[in-house]
Amino acid sequence: MGSGEFPQKAKDLRQLVKNFAVAEWAGMVPGGKEIDFGKLDAALAWIGENTACPGCKEGGGPPDCGIRKCARERGLDYCVKCPDLEPCDRFDWLGPSVKEALLKSKGI
Fold this sequence. Notes:
The protein is about 50% helix and about 0% strand.
């Protein structure tokens, strides 16, 4: 997430949904009536604004982020650069998917 790719993709998708007026014709496609496009738009807007991480060195994460504190102590710009990322338990509070994504980005 430190690259900014994730929030940018959300912004891009939000714009594509608007440009192609998907909400206007989705009801004609199976399953389209069940989609709340207002909620989808709000979710994509939230992702686009709140998931960009400038990295540990630049103060990313919440104010009391133990991950950032550790990364700074180790002199790392980003937590994902840590050689001990795989066994680290500092990510547990974020749920397994965040750490899995970080490990995947490292090719682990």
